Amino acid sequence: MEGVDCFYWSRRPGGVDVWDPSNDPTTIRIITGLVECVWPDAEDRAWEVFRSFPLPAPRVRLQPEDAGIVNLPTYLSLTRPPEAFHHLEALPDGRILEVVAEPIALEVDWGDGTVSSHLPDQARPYPYGGVTHPYRTRTCPHEERATTSGGPCHPTVEAYRIVATLIWQGHWRTNPTGPYQPLDTIGRTSSIDYPIDEIQGVLVNP
Questions:
Q1: What is the value of pTM for the model shown?
Q2: Is residue 19 part of a domain?
Q3: Got the DSSP string for 58-120?
Q4: Taking residues 9-24, what's their average pLDDT?
């Protein structure tokens, strides 16, 4: 109960021994003068901490940078590898709550109906990255739409909207040597518009 003096019952020694009759006046003064603290349980508190982490959305880079090329893979990489978050705090009953959050997946909607899922460390630049996608249809610039009906370029799309979502997994524990308990996941999303061009061969007479 933030900002309000309150009392709580603890199984750990160190407070007022309510079983000692000599402490009766103190016990009566506490329970009649203060409200009882309402503390969330450890998992509820872990959720609060997990949701309070400044989990970043992915900052992405595309190669080729300005526009993709039909039938050649576009590489998506993260400009900064995401780092895990870690938090320790003492609970009212004396236990130490540990909460961690780490990125476990990168989901990419490439904007043409294709969705793929990857490990975050696969999102590296060309030629080492594993987050790639080949586009099959060139996007259609606005000035071409009046003269195009699905042949040379896409009849309605000027650029594909690529949406990248970084999935964060939370875990918690109160036993420093025990196993972590899973929380749910939280996604953080960013997007970028990406046109697709093509390379055409032209026969040149010698």
A1: 0.76
A2: no
A3: P-EEEESSS-EETTSEEEEEESS----EEEEEE-TTSPEEEEEEEEEEEEEE-SSS-EEEE-G
A4: 75
